[in-house]
Amino acid sequence: MATNAVDHAKDEAKAAAQSMAESASKLSAEAQRSFGEAAKKFEKVVAEGLEQIRAQSRTYADNAGEHIDDAQRYVVERVKERPLVATGAALGVGLLIGLLLSSGRKN
Fold this sequence. Notes:
This protein is mostly helical. The protein is built from 2 helices and no strands. It has 2 domains: 64 residues, no CATH class; 40 residues. The termini are far apart. Pfam families: DUF883_C. Keywords: Membrane, Transmembrane, Transmembrane helix.
């Protein structure tokens, strides 16, 4: 009778272990599927974010290009209107930059 009880306990333990292994396998498969879905969602969100950044950066670059063109036309017009004043201003700015750079070398 003791042998019968031991065999019965052994069978129950094997059944419980097998049940736990099946549960663990199902949980593992479910976790892998969930991680796969989460990875796809994350990839989609990142791709959408990058596309939005590209679109915005194109807009900003175009806008900056227009402003640079406007500034360049303004400067060219002013230089054509008063070439001596523009030359004197450029000389003065160059002199100031030179003085600032040379004062840093003395220290």
